[in-house]
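From the methods appendix. Each design record in this collection lists the tokenized structure first, followed by the designed amino acid sequence. Records were kept in a plain field format so they could be parsed without special tools. The example shown here is representative of the layout used throughout.

RECORD:
FOLD TOKENS (411 positions):
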């Protein structure tokens, strides 16, 4: 992409960086040089880290490389978790991505694909436009570094766990910024609404965030909007039927209020008093009993990592709960349904799920359960819990879809 620019502007650009550094000269404890880069085809922006008063994670990546996903996914996770949180000394967290290459349209496409449009995203064009990269002599892509609120380099090419640990230790829980509760369904007795997507909307009814309830129906909302301006909305689900009502409760089960019916499902608008009642809760992997299985026993577990078919000891402990129930109830049989996430080839996913179901079945039979009482079914990616928007799943949504369900039914 060729541009003609006055010599004066060019010299002005060069004045932003006074000293060239090689990537090998970067040292923890030194100040990060300011940069001046494109974030559109026609405009340019500077970042002077010593004046930002923010914690900044910088990712330099190649917008044309096949490894884009692996390069951006960790930054995306950090951004979603911490961008709206507050930290010690009153600072905030900011993700900065810098793409190399001149393919502007591909760069914009990737930002949308991985849902990081709201981060500070820049692209470095060729010639004298990519002053930050040329003056830093960054010759190793991908590259990353973490900068503290004083503009000092804290980490160079850190692992995701290192940055996450740093942010987690310095995060300040703000009761007006974090709210947590449960979504429960029923009439006389209440059961959780597990693994369902909640749409958080502002006073203009724009969706600003989506969260997923856990196995016990709990959720956490973290953002900078005043909670009295927010509502949570639920689509229609099979678990919500007949005269059942849907309630918002505290993490300990105290009923706060009921959802109102809407044309698309149900909605609850937060009140000022709710903020002081709904406290954060630690998420745990729990057994769930959806209302659709009131007369039977139902278990949902996450047993396998991506593309794996090996049962770890911790996973066997979960299946042992099902085995104990079968031994206690000899009139029951178990139906094992193995599901994969929606990534990958559907035929391969189906084969993978069948193998996983068979592995679990063999383990249950090895513990003394008659094989006539055990049915294993691999369903591949046909029945996802979460239908990801535009086919792009977050890591959390991928995990929820990659599940094993156990249905204990009377013979």
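DESIGN:
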């Amino acid at each position: 992409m060729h541009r003609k620019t006055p010599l004066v502007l060019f010299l002005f650009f060069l004045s932003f960086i006074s000293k060239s550094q090689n990537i090998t000269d970067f040292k923890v404890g030194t100040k990060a040089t300011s940069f001046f880069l494109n974030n559109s085809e026609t405009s340019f922006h500077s970042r002077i880290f010593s004046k930002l008063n923010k914690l900044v994670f910088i990712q330099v990546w190649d917008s044309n490389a096949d490894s884009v996903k692996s390069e951006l996914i960790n930054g995306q996770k950090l951004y979603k978790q911490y961008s709206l949180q507050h930290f010690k000394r009153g600072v905030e967290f900011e993700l900065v991505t810098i793409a190399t290459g001149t393919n502007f349209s591909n760069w914009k496409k990737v930002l949308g694909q991985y849902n990081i449009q709201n981060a500070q995203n820049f692209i470095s064009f060729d010639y004298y436009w990519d002053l930050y990269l040329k003056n830093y002599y960054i010759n190793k892509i991908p590259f990353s570094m973490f900068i503290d609120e004083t503009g000092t380099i804290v980490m160079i090419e850190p692992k995701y766990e290192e940055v996450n640990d740093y942010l987690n230790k310095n995060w300040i829980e703000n009761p007006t910024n974090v709210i947590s509760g449960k979504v429960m369904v029923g009439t006389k007795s209440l059961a959780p609404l597990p693994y369902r997507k909640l749409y958080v909307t502002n006073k203009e009814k724009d969706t600003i965030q989506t969260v997923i309830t856990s196995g016990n129906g709990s959720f956490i909302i973290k953002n900078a909007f005043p909670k009295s301006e927010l509502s949570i909305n639920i689509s229609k689900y099979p678990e919500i039927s007949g005269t059942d009502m849907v309630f918002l409760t505290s993490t300990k089960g105290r009923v706060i209020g009921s959802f109102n019916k809407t044309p698309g499902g149900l909605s609850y608008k937060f009140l000022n008093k709710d903020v002081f009642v709904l406290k954060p809760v630690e998420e745990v992997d729990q057994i769930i009993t959806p209302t659709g299985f009131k007369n039977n026993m139902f278990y949902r577990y996450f047993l396998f990592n991506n593309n794996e078919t090996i049962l770890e000891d911790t996973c066997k402990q979960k299946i042992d709960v099902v085995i104990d129930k079968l031994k206690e109830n000899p009139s029951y049989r178990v139906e094992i349904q193995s599901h994969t996430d929606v990534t990958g080839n559907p035929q391969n996913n189906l084969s993978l799920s069948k193998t996983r179901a068979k592995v679990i079945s063999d383990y249950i039979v090895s513990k003394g359960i008659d094989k006539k009482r055990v049915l294993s079914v691999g369903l591949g990616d046909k029945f996802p819990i979460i239908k990801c928007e535009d086919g792009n799943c977050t890591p959390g949504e991928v995990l929820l879809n990659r599940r094993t369900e156990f249905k204990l039914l009377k013979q």
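APPENDIX NOTE: The first helix runs from residue 7 to 14.
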